[in-house]
Amino acid sequence: MELIIYLLIGAIAGFAAGLFGVGGGLIIVPILYIVFTQMHYDPSIIMHMALGTSLATIIVTSISSVSAHHKKGAVLWQVFRNLAPGLALGAFLGAGIADYLSGQGLQLLIGCFAIWVAFKMFRGAGVAVDPQRRMPSAPMQLAAGGGIGIASAIFGIGGGSLTVPYLNRHGVVMQKAVATSAACGLPIAVAGALGFMWFGKQADVAVPNTIGYVHIYAFIGISVMSFITAKLGAKVVHMLSPAMLKKCFACLLTAVGSYFMYQGLSQLF
């Protein structure tokens, strides 16, 4: 039964990864939080395990999603090369920062972040990308990658929630922004997952079938199914208008953000 749940999570998350370039983390984290809570794991580490396991699965969904986007020639590989070193270093550091935060603190941070990004995306849904805008210099992209990497590890996501708006703001159309974001999810996921494994080992996590903060069975189940469905999501993205994509993206983020805000605040009162 447990494996079936992880396979279902993977099917949904993989489709979202290909469609929105978010690596599926915005769906994986809240569902894993619920599943791990029902399995009566230590409440103080449930959020950390959801984040670490999410990042590990994004390694697979990113590979699947980016291969489909690459076939359509939508990935801006030069931009990826500029961002990647900062993304990887930032993601590892972000895992360390998350290790020091409480589960409740992480919930509130993720909730606020998701709602903020949703507002920004929805407000700009009907706004055309300015073709005169250009990407900043390589060092500035490297620095931006560092910031995106840190935040992505703390939020357990592939970086799409930050990378897509960042690219949009600098003149990249939505389809190419989503495709490039999918590629950027790989260095974030690898470095972030290794970070959560490392810091989780130092914390001596007493949960079976785990390496640090990464749950192995959940990783396998989600990865297997998401690898398949990410390709489907990547195909659908090229059938939709940029404005519709932004609105769908904003609705997804609002739902996730509201959920975590409720969870975090309910523990305060």
Automatic annotation (TrEMBL):
<protein>
    <recommendedName>
        <fullName>Probable membrane transporter protein</fullName>
    </recommendedName>
</protein>
<feature type="transmembrane region" description="Helical">
    <location>
        <begin position="211"/>
        <end position="232"/>
    </location>
</feature>
<keyword id="KW-1133">Transmembrane helix</keyword>
<keyword id="KW-0812">Transmembrane</keyword>
<feature type="transmembrane region" description="Helical">
    <location>
        <begin position="108"/>
        <end position="129"/>
    </location>
</feature>
<dbReference type="InterPro" id="IPR002781">
    <property type="entry name" value="TM_pro_TauE-like"/>
</dbReference>
<dbReference type="Pfam" id="PF01925">
    <property type="entry name" value="TauE"/>
</dbReference>
<feature type="transmembrane region" description="Helical">
    <location>
        <begin position="244"/>
        <end position="262"/>
    </location>
</feature>
<feature type="transmembrane region" description="Helical">
    <location>
        <begin position="6"/>
        <end position="33"/>
    </location>
</feature>
<feature type="transmembrane region" description="Helical">
    <location>
        <begin position="45"/>
        <end position="63"/>
    </location>
</feature>
<keyword id="KW-1003">Cell membrane</keyword>
<feature type="transmembrane region" description="Helical">
    <location>
        <begin position="141"/>
        <end position="166"/>
    </location>
</feature>
<feature type="transmembrane region" description="Helical">
    <location>
        <begin position="178"/>
        <end position="199"/>
    </location>
</feature>
<comment type="similarity">
    <text>Belongs to the 4-toluene sulfonate uptake permease (TSUP) (TC 2.A.102) family.</text>
</comment>
<keyword id="KW-0472">Membrane</keyword>
<feature type="transmembrane region" description="Helical">
    <location>
        <begin position="83"/>
        <end position="101"/>
    </location>
</feature>
<dbReference type="GO" id="GO:0005886">
    <property type="term" value="C:plasma membrane"/>
</dbReference>
